[in-house]
Write a structure and sequence with these properties.
lyase, binds 1,3-dihydroxyacetonephosphate, Methylglyoxal_synth_AS, methylglyoxal synthase activity, MGS-like_dom_sf, 14% strand, MGS-like_dom
Length: 138
Amino acid sequence: MNIALIAHDKKKPEIITFTTAYQNILEKHQLFATGTTGKKIADATGLSIIRFQSGPLGGDQQIGSKIADDQMDMVIFFRDPLTAQPHEPDITALLRLCDVHQIPVATNLAGAEIMIRALDRGDFNWRKVAKDERNQVE
Ligand SMILES: O=C(CO)COP(=O)(O)O
C-alpha cells in the first residue's frame, strides 16, 4: 500500500512516536511524506520515505495529486487544530480529495492507530482488488 504521512509542527513528536511504535508494519509499505515530516521520521526511525515539498511550499498538493492519480491508499495526517496554517486551503483541498476518492484518512493519533492495525490485519486488501479491477476495465 502507498501511505502518506504528514504532521504539522506541533504534532511532529506525535508522528515520530507513532511511526516508531508501528515501524514493523510501516516498513512493509511504500511511504510518502511532506518534506519536514519525512525527514524527521526518517532520521528517527530509519524508514525509507519518498519526500515531497514541505507542506507550506506545496507538499500537501503533491500528495493530493497522487490521490487524484489513484496512487495513494491511505493518508495519516496529524493536524494541529489549534494553530493557523498559512497553507490552510491546501490542507482543505487534500482532505477534500480523500473524500472525493474514498481514501482512508486519519487526522489524529487515535484514528491512525486503528487504521494501521486494520492495515496489518488485511482490512485494506479491498483497495488492491478494486484497483486491479479498475485496471482490467481500462
Ligand atoms: O504543513 C504540513 C502539512 O500541511 C506539513 O509539512 P512539513 O512536513 O514540511 O512540515
